[in-house]
Amino acid sequence: MTRDLFAADALTVAPLLLGSRLTVTSDEGAVTVRISEVEAYHGVGVPGRYDPGSHSRDRRTERNASMFGPPGHAYVYFSYGMHFALNMVCSPEGVASGVLIRSGEVVEGERLAQLRRSAKRGHPAPVPARSLARGPGNLAAALGITREAHNGRDLFEAPFAFAPPETPPADIAAGPRVGVAGEAGGPAFPWRFWIPGDPTVSAFRPGRGAPRG
Description:
Layout: H1 10-13, E1 21-26, E2 29-42, E3 74-79, E4 83-89, E5 97-108, H2 110-121, H3 136-143, H4 147-150, E6 160-163, E7 173-175, E8 192-194
Antiparallel strand pairs: 1-2, 1-6, 2-5, 2-8, 3-4, 4-5, 7-8
Helix pairs in contact: 2-3
């Protein structure tokens, strides 16, 4: 897991992230997630197909500026007024391309991840292990990700840390992205990648409303 990996576009990078381990450290402690599901998004400057599902599909804005930044940095956005989502910026600086980290298995720091998820839910009941980081909002909550603290930060410096897969996935599945509206969430964009049979992978649902990415 080197910065050179992220110099490629998101569609190339996305499946290569499966099985890798992402750690985020804070004053509360550290949580590590084994990545099981990702989605690729392309924007301005990426050659090839126009991606109508991406935040950066047309132009740079204050919100999506980090997606145009150096490869190997974080792009964090607030989704539906409810939760944060973590993306890993790809492609050379000035080109908008990123991988949304959709789901993973909490392999270290489960107690802290449980406390964070309980606080987010407003309910003290424990969350099943398979669901702790299942879905981008839950994953960000388990890792303690916020836009204020992590947007634009270098993924190769504290509070982030990467480790390659202990065992590379034996198989990788691909299909439409989850919850993305219109053509961008259909079979024309099989830009979601996951580890088949992994219980932490989120269920597919079609998109409604505005695009995202």
